[in-house]
Give the backbone structure.
Amino acid sequence: MKKTKILCVLDGFGISSDKIGNPFWVADIPNFKKLLSENIWTTMNADGTFVGQETGLVGNSEVGHMNMGGLQLVKQLSLQITESSNSNYDLKKENTDQKFDPKKYIVDNSVVHMIGLFSSGTIHSDLRHWIGAIKAALKKNSKIYLHLISDGRDSDRMSFLESWDSFTKENSEVFDNNAENIFLGSISGRFYAMDRDNNQDRIDKYYNCLIEKDVDVEMGDISEVISRITEGSYKSEKYDEFIEPVGFRGFKKDEIIWFINFRTDRMKQIVKRVCEGNNKGNDNNLIIANNNYGNGLEKDEREIKKRNGYYPIFENNVVKKTLSEYISKKNMNQLHIAETEKFNHVTYFFNGGSNKKQKNEDWVVIDSNKIESHASKPEMKAKEVTDYILKNGIGLYDYIIVNYANCDMVGHTGDFSASVKSLEVLDKQIGRLVKKINSIGGSMLITAD
């Protein structure tokens, strides 16, 4: 029997001495408390320059897993995009990862559709990247349609209108001088537009709002439209994350589609759907993106005439000499396991931006619950993940990388009582792992992302 070593990532877990609004101080979590009292532990910084980002930017799951799995400080792609968007996406010599020059193919008087999370959260997108893209398209006198995805998870649940008004006020010169070129294309909550759990009905509902209708909502009316839609949605207790898709001006043939998000995991499905629609309709849409979203549809600039995929402006460099690679080269075997919501994090992100398994590396995904809010089932699939490890992992693998999604996914709902319950469920599963790992003389490192 192998003396298994486990790296256990409690996604979204954090430590704070603040007791108000903190589920950790309310939950019944004897195993956590015992571990903290009997073992050496420390806190770590997971934001800003500590994880390869700009000073002041918060961390996120992608950043955390890439740094852990990378065994090194990984410079984040968002910083490179910010440097370029500050100059309206002009190519810079220092931006060696910029693969594609959008202005080269945004010809004069083009129609450009920009799609992305419109949020101050800087977890999946950045408002500076938005304004840089808008300025770049305006240089070619383009007609711009903004397809705004509201947040409510990485930002306040009712902040969409405030974010738009602040954004336009801060960039008033751009919007005031170019109002005749800027229109609203669609509005949708991220629940529909940024699904990553293969809920095709949600993606289809959002996609349909991107291709239907032909109504020009002018720049001067956008704030009023957002106000009307959010007010109606809030009355039904559907906050920013859950705003139903509403389309105004869809894609037409020979137009340009620009995906703004820099993070990959929540863009794969909608980008794939847009590419499929482009091919099926022979629409000849040029699709560009601020990253390679890793779904196999990205194209090289040399294939620009085919227009049957998308063209990344930037692309993450695959991190070399990762933990997974190190374990494999030691001729040891390893298991990477998580439920669907965090599967990319223990595979693609943890392996440095690569979808390729190392030798003797197994990946196991446990299907997440197909529900609107994880607050309704805060236990998620923590027990099933643990069951698999106890039966098929400990003693059979040299290393196990496991992610528990509860703290992150339930915490994002803002439901305090559900968050308390999720911690209590997680505490029991950690207790089961500790008991088993101790019985075989193995070891476990518990951390967060």
In short: The longest strand covers residues 143-150. The chain has a mean pLDDT of 94. The CA atoms of residues 103 and 136 lie 7 Å apart. Residues 416-439 form the longest helix (24 residues).
